Amino acid sequence: MHTELHTSRLTMRPVQQTDFDILQTILTDRFVRRYLCDDQILPPEQIQDFILVSEQTFEAGDYGLWLLHDQLKNMVIGFAGLWSFFEENQPQLLYALLPAFTREGYATEASKAVIDYCFNKLSFPYIDASFDESNIASLRVAERLEMTFLKKEWIDGSPVLFYRKVNSAVA
């Protein structure tokens, strides 16, 4: 079994095949897919691949995606973890919350746990996050995580912002 992460409100466990239904619910939610999936509804095969890639990256590199289980509400509210995007040198921070659980600090809380894991367990020299320029909520999370602006790129005709947090223990 791979590493579980814990915060004051969350139990975070690696995504697995039995999580297909909840991941489909999250990834096809209109609010989530607006920024995460370029507003496209992912077909079941792509969600299955999403799970498979996460399982493979846990096997190969001890990272992937963790489901966020709210201990008090006793339910899965989203996911967070590391995912490879845009041919970057290492995976980036990624998270998604069901809309009922936004604006409660869960994204920041889960992201802090992932960053701590990356820095303390995996010894990453830094962690990046990228998001659409129009995604103000993700910008606020990056700021709360004390990430710094790295660059702006146009990807598929849209402006994408990149933020970075450096591991001071490695730097």
From TrEMBL:
Gene3D superfamilies: 3.40.630.30. Transmembrane segments: none annotated. It holds the Pfam family Acetyltransf_3. Residues 10-167 form the N-acetyltransferase domain. Coiled coil: none annotated. GO terms for molecular function: acyltransferase activity, transferring groups other than amino-acyl groups. This is GNAT family N-acetyltransferase. It comes from Spirosoma profusum.
